[in-house]
Specification:
386 residues; alpha/beta; Urease, subunit C, domain 1; TIM Barrel; 2 domains; eight-stranded parallel beta sheet; five-stranded mixed beta sheet; 22 strands
């Protein structure tokens, strides 16, 4: 059986068995603790990383597009493959393609594409993120108004029939009836609150019912005020809910990231919210998502009304932002890009350096430059990936 040894490494986001380790082994696509017995027959491949950092592969739960591809605009297997190649080069070994509110035919095409892609790459894509259309018109962000609508029985039937393709859904609890929320949860569909004007009470009732996640905290929701804490207040008070942050330094001020991390701890994670301009060799002045034109501005990516419309970052950019601007330790930042998002959507054997977990790893230097990416046990230098 082929064995690969990665030695002389600084390991991050590990289980207890790897806390003081400087080496790990990969066997049958899985991580195993280093054992001298693995070297006895002389067939093991040894890779000396000479003090480089090794962490789990990044897990990005919100990717609209990258490398010139918009999944919402062209929901196809070809688009997903192009996204996969770019994301792997930048250390993201697992990603969730996101579909915002749009035409019903986009939904049909997207679900079919993700089903095929997921079957081909089960550890790379756990499913689709449906961000809408069952959201608030008041906090829609750049979602096209004409496609936002309440959840009907045909929608519920369709979602339940395709539950295995859905990694999670973002909904507004004031738009989706409480009984429908319970029905979706009973169908084992992970729900996240976002793009919502929900009250504190409604949010807490949703959490009590079993909603476990919040989509891009502080963005796309009513701001908290003294008499109405809203979703932000409910999230920060909850002891179980996970919440994502768009870690580009534009969507959320570092002070609020620090506050959220102080309260939520290892339940706060980052997403890129990347758009097709991420990774484009020449940045266009604007691009189309759905029926909305998004402009590339010094303030970020914005629509004609000034609403933010995603980012051009990768997950490593988000890790650096947490460390350099928000006071996170390197381990705290890497945790927010790996094991926490895995836990948020129930990925059982990913996101941590632990015996038996899938061997997805990122190997990088002190300047956060990626040198190797390990995907499903296969080691590739960054030069081989480009």
């Amino acid at each position: 059986m082929a064995v690969t040894i990665i030695k002389n490494a600084k390991l991050h986001v590990t289980s207890e068995e790897f806390v003081d380790a400087t080496s790990l082994a990969i066997m049958d696509h899985r991580i195993v603790p280093m054992d001298p017995g693995l070297l006895e027959d002389g067939t093991a491949e040894e890779i000396d990383v000479k003090g480089l950092h090794v962490c789990p592969g990044f897990i990005d739960l919100l990717v609209n597009g990258c490398a010139g591809v918009s999944f919402g605009q062209t929901p196809s297997i070809e688009a997903l493959e192009q996204m996969r190649r770019y994301l792997t080069q930048h250390g993201t070994t697992t990603f969730v393609p996101t579909l915002i509110s749009g035409p019903r035919e986009n939904y049909t095409k997207a679900m079919a594409a993700v089903a095929e892609f997921k079957e081909k790459h089960p550890s790379i894509c756990p499913g689709i993120h449906l961000e809408g259309p069952f959201i608030s018109q008041l906090h829609k962000g750049f979602h096209p108004s004409g496609y936002i609508r309440p959840l009907g029985q045909p929608d519920l039937d369709s979602l339940r029939a395709q539950k295995d393709i859905i990694a999670y859904m973002t909904i507004a609890p004031e738009v989706v009836k409480a009984k429908n929320i319970i029905e979706l949860l009973q169908s084992k569909i992970t729900l996240s609150l976002g793009h919502t004007a929900t009250s504190y009470f409604e949010a807490m009732q949703s959490f009590k019912a079993g909603v476990t996640n919040v989509t891009h905290l502080f963005n796309g929701m009513r701001p908290p005020v003294g008499r109405e804490p809203g979703l932000v207040g409910a999230t920060l008070q909850s002891e179980k809910v996970f919440a994502s942050i768009i870690a580009d330094g534009k969507h959320v001020h570092p002070s609020l990231v620090k506050l959220a991390h102080k309260i939520l701890g290892d339940r706060l994670y980052i997403v890129s919210d990347a758009q097709p301009v991420a990774g484009m060799p020449k940045t266009p002045q604007s691009f189309i998502v759905g029926s909305t034109e998004v402009f590339v501005d010094k303030r970020g990516l914005i629509d004609a009304k000034g609403a933010y419309a995603g980012t051009s970052i990768c997950m490593m950019d988000g890790v650096k932002f947490l460390i350099q601007s928000c006071g996170f330790s390197i381990d705290e930042a890497l945790l927010a890009a790996t094991y926490t998002p895995a836990r948020a959507i129930g990925l059982q054997d990913m996101g941590r350096i632990e015996g038996g977990f899938i061997a997805d790893l990122v190997i990088f230097d002190d300047d956060f430059r990626i040198q190797y990416v390990v995907q499903n046990g296969f080691v590739k230098s960054i030069a081989e990936l480009v």
